[in-house]
Structure formats: structure tokens, C-alpha cells
Amino acid sequence: MKIVERIKAPTPKFFKILRSVGLALLAISGTIVAAPIVLPVTVVTVAGYMAVAGGVISAVSQMTVKDEILRKTQDDTNKPRDGD
């Protein structure tokens, strides 16, 4: 399965929720990092880590596909090459 096909394939419900959580972490951390007021260094550092975690969670969740799609693709690729 190519990467573009994997991204376009349907995502299971659990990973859709997880992707939303990751995007929320990204939004919250971006707001904290870009705040126009001076915040303690610890808060900004934690916000940076939250941004990385949110990005990873969102990316991994987006790449996850339903099992039926993955099995169908694997079945197609394991056929013999004798014209069958």
C-alpha cells in the first residue's frame, strides 16, 4: 500500500478521536508559545513538548487504516505474477 493510498483510506473511529486530541494539543501549545505576554520558561518548554506530541499523535492516527482495507491490499499484492 502506497503512502498516498494509506492517507486517503478510511480511519477507524478510535484513531479519529485520537487525531482530534492531537490537533487540540497542537492548538493549545501553539497558543501558549505565541502568547504576547511573558510566561515562565517551564510553561513554554512544556508547550513545546505538547506540540511535538500532538504532531506525532495526529500523524500516526492519520496513517492508521481499517483492517479490511489493509487485508484487501495485502491480498492483492500477494497474488502470483503468472497472469492470475
Mean pLDDT: 83
* Largest sheet, strands/sense/barrel: none
Number of domains: 1
Oligomer: single chain
In DSSP terms, counting alpha (H) and pi (I) runs of 4 or more, how many helices?
4
The ordered string of helix (H) and strand (E) elements is HHHH
Q: Which residues form runs of ≥5 with pLDDT under 50?
A: none
- Topology, number of strands: 0
Radius of gyration: 19 Å
Strand content: under 5%
Report the principal-axis shape: elongated
Structural class: mainly alpha
Helix content percent band? over 70%
- The CA-CA distance between the termini, in Å, is 20 Å
In short:
The radius of gyration is 19 Å and the shape is elongated. The longest helix has 23 residues. It has one domain.
Question: What does the model show?
Answer:
By secondary structure, this protein is mostly helical. It has one domain (3-67). The protein has helices at residues 3-8, 13-33, 41-63, 67-77. The model has no long low-confidence stretch (mean pLDDT 83).
Could you give the topology of this structure?
Elements: H1 3-8, H2 13-33, H3 41-63, H4 67-77
Helix pairs in contact: 2-3
What labels would you give this structure?
84 residues; 73% helix; mainly alpha
